[in-house]
Predict the 3D structure of the following.
Amino acid sequence: MAESVLRVTVWGENLHEQRDAAVRAIYPDGMHTTIAEGIREHLGAGARVRTATFDQPEHGLTREVLDETDVLTWWGHIGHDRVDDRVVERVHERVLLGMGLVALHSAHASKIFGRLMGTTCMLRWREAGERELVWKVNPGHPVARGLPDVFVIPEQEMYGEYFDIPQPDELVFISSFSGGEVFRSGCAFRRGQGRIFYFSPGHETHPVYHHPQVRQVIANAVRWAGVGPQRPYPTFRTGLHSPTGWFERS
Amino acid sequence: MAESVLRVTVWGENLHEQRDAAVRAIYPDGMHTTIAEGIREHLGAGARVRTATFDQPEHGLTREVLDETDVLTWWGHIGHDRVDDRVVERVHERVLLGMGLVALHSAHASKIFGRLMGTTCMLRWREAGERELVWKVNPGHPVARGLPDVFVIPEQEMYGEYFDIPQPDELVFISSFSGGEVFRSGCAFRRGQGRIFYFSPGHETHPVYHHPQVRQVIANAVRWAGVGPQRPYPTFRTGLHSPTGWFERS
Amino acid sequence: MAESVLRVTVWGENLHEQRDAAVRAIYPDGMHTTIAEGIREHLGAGARVRTATFDQPEHGLTREVLDETDVLTWWGHIGHDRVDDRVVERVHERVLLGMGLVALHSAHASKIFGRLMGTTCMLRWREAGERELVWKVNPGHPVARGLPDVFVIPEQEMYGEYFDIPQPDELVFISSFSGGEVFRSGCAFRRGQGRIFYFSPGHETHPVYHHPQVRQVIANAVRWAGVGPQRPYPTFRTGLHSPTGWFERS
Amino acid sequence: MAESVLRVTVWGENLHEQRDAAVRAIYPDGMHTTIAEGIREHLGAGARVRTATFDQPEHGLTREVLDETDVLTWWGHIGHDRVDDRVVERVHERVLLGMGLVALHSAHASKIFGRLMGTTCMLRWREAGERELVWKVNPGHPVARGLPDVFVIPEQEMYGEYFDIPQPDELVFISSFSGGEVFRSGCAFRRGQGRIFYFSPGHETHPVYHHPQVRQVIANAVRWAGVGPQRPYPTFRTGLHSPTGWFERS
């Protein structure tokens, strides 16, 4: 079970920020820093938040770091293909064992999200700085807590259906865009002992991670997903040979 | 949509049958032949059933074969790791586009099933020739049609929980074993445009695929999953750039 | 199982049509007649379609009529409270036994839909003749078959979230409106042996049931839900006392 | 949101206990007292637990009591039909608004559980003092926390499939019985803003509520369901007329 203080690792690809002055203007210390700030703002002393980035050895996601992580948030885009498969496999294993994963925006196309979903996770898109409305469709869900019935993101990349994911275990938000498109923008999944939340707002050329309600959603999602590493289930990875029947275990 | 005649390819690993006289005694022409016979017995002129095996070029699952397949059934065990990743990728793509997949028994650990589920798909097991009872828990489901409330497989390998799969979209059968274990033995999933049915009875050292009700379930599952290849959805693989808003498509 | 010819009963409240000339101008023979025509148009000789209305004895839903009904479609609004509870109970029983139910538009607030859902089924609404876009979010679903990725209803009553229903077993359509609202407009449920489809387009003051794609959806939903009456499951209504263990039934 | 101290009301029918000396021998102060003790044992200072019974005015479930209840547990059997419909309606409303409900054993046939599920909730049964094995099928679920992979209830009434409920939002436990039957014994549902857990062990003629693991499950379920009363969602009961579009709410 999670420690009383939730240990959060915010992973940011941090490549757009190095190449593109427009992105750097919005996120001078990288998107990961802004995302981490938003989590700290809401969870306060209840969380210990660190960051990790693509350029670090093992992308900053060593065994040691993951050993101390209850929830991992993930933002990536242009570096998806270059993420080391061994790191992906390591994160996958941790999620199944109970580490939470909060996948943000273009992380829909990351290796780790695709590995967990089993589908293409592709979608419709348009970069036109459109108004996004985020509607609650599950008002009792912990990730929706404290949010209004609808909130507005003035400028966003459009993400639209069909979004090729397995049906979410719980659908929490649906967005509409100025262009008329709709999108399942907040989706909760359970895989193994782990909880996964996908939240779509967050394009790099708009100040979405400075938006108060977006920060609230991400903090809620971190708390919801933050079960933390569990004891491996008995059939994990290798299965369990049970030679003599149930009574052996009573 | 599926042709009026359903095109079924029964894939059998066919390795145990070559090595083990006990298996050959039960399945002299290979398990795949017996499985194919069971489907023909129930679907008759409504299906055209062929077989394919591990030892064939591309495991018998060339593009040409898959082009003519509405539903693929899969039985594998000791050869899982040696199945060519390119064939797995090809089958995965077809399933997302609408080809049905019926995964049988030890196929829980196949690459293709794991790729679609995103979890380990591991379970508890024991080879002790135990009595399995298969109970319907979804009497209105097409895969349960024509089956009694419960049927008995006199001797089976025990498969028990925890079975590490995403929650099935529809749970159709639960089994109990003499040793007291339980197992979600009939599970329906939807991924992309495809339908997947996992059915656990079927160990190679017992005549399970000669069992009349097991054959009925597999034929039902083939019919249920047999939507057949569909037009790719607009966001398939690459996503869809929609430059000017919804009205462009009206 | 359903007969090869699907027996469909289209239930229409037919009260607005009697009171309101504007409605009568759009639906001179009643909305039920137009809905029935749309189903016949798509299912042709595959269906035998009749209608029934509020003013008939037992609202036209006698035991005899239901005995010959594989799928019932339901449109009601101002008469909800006056629908006889015995008829509601009768329809409820039939749905659990396998009769399909297609609930249209304001039927969200009908007694029968609420009885099956267990929640308030209430929603946000506005009558302002807004443009509704209906998006497919489940392209492989039978009810989405033959439909474009999105279709436009030029003028509709707005229905918006939060829609207080249990999470649908399958979500097929999401709509957006000119006002920015979103709505889960096509929802599939399974209860007992029956299939239920809720489809929200259809206000009485707009010619929605003349709309070609709306008619396609309703016909698809009728076909999907049309399993037809089944043998009662062994535990229906009273439960089943099983005095001596599973072997009694083998 | 729930107070930091969870307010739990344990409702017991308390009729068997008055009539049947065998039941009284096991539960001298009523089953509700034993159930309440088990919850206190596990939740300690984290919960304030009271009881209410059938014979009290309004069955002990007045508005005042429900105003101070975050989670209600329900055990009933021979008095189901005599429970006042107004109390059922009141409890139903509270659940939709966020009060948790933990339905125990024969509460499957209670008015309130049926009202929330929309199905018959009937099942197969036998009173033969059989051994029940309760298996975890969802090891990461909060209600499974601290439990072994399987636990044994030496003597229980058999409850078997088909259990006529909507597919649970999360299936947590499956039981097997000496007679070979299986049962979905731990089922989680969400309705409105409320959480509902059904747990089947608990016949009145066996000391099931003295069983340490059964008590652990019930305490876990109470904690999981204990969101507590929430602000009504905007469309509760009457729907929400939104005259001028989403922007009115921004």
Observations:
- The mean pLDDT of chain D is 95.
- DSSP finds seven helices and ten strands in chain D.
